[in-house]
Queue: 3 jobs
Job 1
Amino acid sequence: MLDVIILNASLPDGRSPIDIGILDGRIVAVERALVADAHEVIDAAGQLVSPPFVDPHFHMDSTLSYGQPRVNQSGTLLEGIALWGELKPLLTQDAIIERAMAYCDWAVAKGLLAIRSHVDVCDPRLLAVEALLEVKRRVAPYLDLQLVAFPQDGVLRAPGALENLTRALDMGVEVVGGIPHFERTMADGAESVRILCELAAERGLRVDMHCDESDDPLSRHIETLAQHTHRLGLHGRVAGSHLTSMHSMDNYYVSKLIPLIREAGVAAIANPLINITLQGRHDTYPKRRGMTRVPELLAGGVPVAFGHDCVMDPWYALGSGDMLEVASMGLHVAQMTGQAAMRQCYSAVTDTAASILGLEGYGIAPGCRADLVMLQAADPVDALRLRATRLMVMRAGRVIARTPPATASLSLPERPQTVDWRLRGNQAG
């Protein structure tokens, strides 16, 4: 007797109709016409059933703080950093926890069940670290929260930042972060990468650095990150986030850089909503898009994931925790409108992101944890096109969120009474 059977599901890889059997919080069967009894039977009726969404780059310590202590009038990165500096002395643990817990509620409702959040360690009180460790504990039954020790003001530039970062790791933060392009000099930036990678290697930890979040084509800390990754044997445990300077680099240099990144096993994390908002601000026209070279990185064998980065904080006044919005923006900006490319964008907020975080038991296969999202869509491309409603969200075989289907009624002569946005129309072939 199984706990749950999901019937007639369409899977992201194109298989349909498929039945999914669940027992003790794990998937035990994925097959056509599953013959078994279950305490609960859910008919997907051909809807897309997917592993949950994963956000590989976020800032939960600042989320939902928009307007505190004032609004970012220019909307720029530097004013956002200045605003965060003004807000930090006013922070309390209770306020951080309350905002982060509210955002986790949003995330669950959107089928987002794993988040890697950078947490600022430049405040010697480490209030945000303590707060997010408490949030991590509270949400553990339904959401995987992975924390990055992030020296927002520069690990060498800010007094005591390296000591604070080390203390945060001792407290239980599990990923080493950095921001080399914000150090005072290029040389200091390179030195910060070396120090932080060696620290991660000593402790057996992963690395995720804000890297080259700049329009400057000479900001090349990703090269240094790849080199130290290779030197220290950190292959598969390191990610470079943002990498926006790559959109301004000359093609010859990039043709050498991408193979270096691939050989080192470094992953790339783009943040489409924020990258295109904050970068290219000094351009008139032609105006740069701002996001890193996603198609070229993918073609070069580098794993690429998409992060949300910010939601209603000093840097970004918008957002709702919807990773389909993130993937859709990435798709458009990178001009990835081919069928295979659109599916890569879906993977960038699901399985590729899960791999970068090192999530265990992720996916739809026997033995995987029964974390699933049912979407009001036929397939991943449909889900992106529609920003599809999350009809059901399941964690370890238990339904934890439901949303009614998106419907509309029409009162038009000789026309249907309802609208079905899933209709794909006539398709060649």
Job 2
Amino acid sequence: MSSLTPAYPIPHPFDEEQPFFFNPPEDDQDLPLKEIPGSYGAPLIGAVLDRWDFYYNQGRDGFFSARQEKYKSTVFRANAPPGPFIAKDPKVVVLLDAVSFPILFDTTKVEKKNVFDGTYMPSVNFTGGYRVLSFLDPSEPKHNALKSYFFNVLASKHDNFIPVLGKSLTELFNNLESQLAKSKEVNFNPISDNASFNYVFQLFCDKSPSETGLGAQGNKTVDIWLVPQVIPLVSVGVPKFLQLVEDLLIHTFPIPAFLVKGKYKTIFEAFSSAASPILDQAKDFGLERDEACHNLIFLTCFNTYGGLKVLFPSLFKWLGRAGPTWHANLAKEIRNVVKQEGGVVTFAALEKMPLLKSVVYEVLRIDPPVPFQYAHAKEDLVIQSHDASFKIKKGEMIFGYQPFATKDPKVFENPETFVPYRFMGKAEANLKYVYWSNGRETEAPTADNKQCAGRDLVVLVARVMLVEFFLRYDTFTCTDEVFLVGSKVTFTSLTKAGTVKTKS
């Protein structure tokens, strides 16, 4: 495998004195104490009006930016979607800056019980009658047991992370190439979704979903189970004359779990049988096998597969916009390192690719796969933004909108711009302002916090995706558009490795 030296010029910004190194001041106890601005409006009506602004009148980002501008504050009061009648109390304190946002991670001061989906909680009938790990606060005894169990499961699968993913990605790329050969453009999302689910199922169950009752398109069964749980948080983009109908159908009343009972039974039976070896370990953590299985399904199908449904298209969205010069930069780094490692993609090899690492973190910063974070104040709190202090009363719900916090202009220069090398060199220190995993990227998930148990796996999977892609291709083109909570990516060309003109 020869190294790639593109004919087009490559910028060389990878030094220690980058323009993207910032170290904003930490909390300043001398900041003035101010009342939290904003209003919840009249009962019921105020929440419905805010919901319509969020979904239809202003859009998600517009909803927050309009209020930030109105109140001249990154901390304010508003009603969070979906509101009545799905949520009993939609009132929240909104946080939009990098300084105030981390209060959501401090479980000594905030409670994370039943707030995984925000101001509402889907019926436990979606998960076999159990409140699964994502809805538990660390103070609850089952939290430590379940999270410790998952750490053990992930550790037992460590050696399979890269090899199993490599096989799934080969199938993904073959499928993408095949379809692109027949058409001028190909929707990447369904191809990515199928490969992502095949990977996570194979990883945890040691067999393909096609060998179970789920079949070769098992992800479609999982999607049917997923949608009713998250649909209250999105708009499907209907024409204006159908917005009232959509609002009544998916934002006003919860979709009952019995509608997907049959699909979930199929999922449960597949995992219960195929994942027997790891489910049998649950008793060592004081867990019943049945409860462990329902939790494993949520971890695999909701947390991991659901996250990859958003993350993989996002990777190619931003790299597609970055263009061929940055594709060449990545390809050169990846191929040189893999060649030095004997042609094998290993954990050690990935750690020797600083540009690759930075690109993945930059995607997670600019387009976090989980945009919302919630918590209830355990006590009266004083939080701080860059400019002021604010008092939050015990019991109030705090709502952080992550895409604004991780694009805080007082932390990151040109925050709306995708900068592939943003976290290289000294600027790697700014990973403490990357919050996608419900915690700082510089801190570790533990059984006592709410940071994503599979955080490191997600970062690894994103890196391996790009490594395998640029070992196989020199460059690509695509288009992107907003799709539900993520992006729809359409590939328009793929250029195989070695096709780009090189210099000796």
Job 3
Amino acid sequence: MYLVEDKGGAIALMIAALCFLGTWPALLTLLERKGRLPQHTYLDYSITNFLAAVIIALTFGQIGHSSPTVPNFLTQLRQNNWPSVAFAMIGGLVLSIGNLSTQYAWAFVGLSVTEVVSSSITVVVGTTMNYFLDDRINRAEILFPGVGCFLIAVCLGSAVHASNANDNIAKLDSINKKCLKGDEEAQSKVNSQIKIAEIRPGTREFLQQLEMTRAIKVHGRSILFGLSIVIFSGLCFSLFSPAFNLATNDQWHLLKEGVPHLVVYTAFFYFSVSCVIVGIGLNILFLYHPICGLPSSSLKAYVYDWNGRHWALLAGLLCGFGNGFQFMGGQAAGYAAADAVQALPLVSTIWAVLLFGEYHRSSRKTYMLLISMLFMFIVAVAVLMASAGHRKLVQDH
């Protein structure tokens, strides 16, 4: 079994996880904006997300030396370690529900703000829990100022969303007033503008066309509704890493004497089993009983829906490997420091601007808030990674 034992390797894994975890939400958002039902997309995503965990377990979890205290993946599947398995599966449960919630939040709030607020809540709550679970191996005088930066980012993220939403409302109201006047010439001009292939991002025509093509209709919905989904998903995300920490390190001493701790690869496998069960189960339910005003669908319609399926499958792989690398780095350097990957909004915001035209032609106030939010994230990432410690592995005892 391959283990990461040095701080440099752990940080490299965190950086890779940061890139992967910041990219997969952009792919799912792209499909929703093109009209693909979120239920179809999440079913595809769930399959390859689980496949990534299997690949990691059968490669990193099997290669190299195996010992009675640190067994390889297949050996550990036969051991009596169900208390730890339960924690791993609880972690997968809350992560799956959180990911499913954010899929709808991206439509209502936007990709960048959703990731900022949910990730910041994750750090504020989850990192604090991991610090104490990890027996304080991270430097508190560095770690908690980083947590404070994430908390400030939550407030700035909410302010960015409110300001940008007001900008969009003003643009859409402008075009609606023209249409209500009954001016046929103005109406014709508007319709011809919408038919232009290359509509400039951020314009009122761009926003109106987006509302017509996307799967989830959001115009006129309450800002608080979208933010409530984001806060709920953030609370779910804040629990999955501490649960995984308990699964791999057994801080509450629930395993029987002589039973080795779950290695990170076995824990991640069970974690992903829970993810795929919840993800597939809930989305099959949502096919026939949809939420947020979506149309109903069926398993047959899902099977034959190949529109953008390759992007959904890629998103699942990116998320699966991103989570696996985060846990591998956390086991070596402390899960509190590994929460630095929650700076994934840095990557998501880049995709949001490049792919979706978020914040194009917004007000100066929105731009200032956005810059402040991203700057606070950069500071927070640097501080959290600087707090990384070194876990004494089981075989060192």
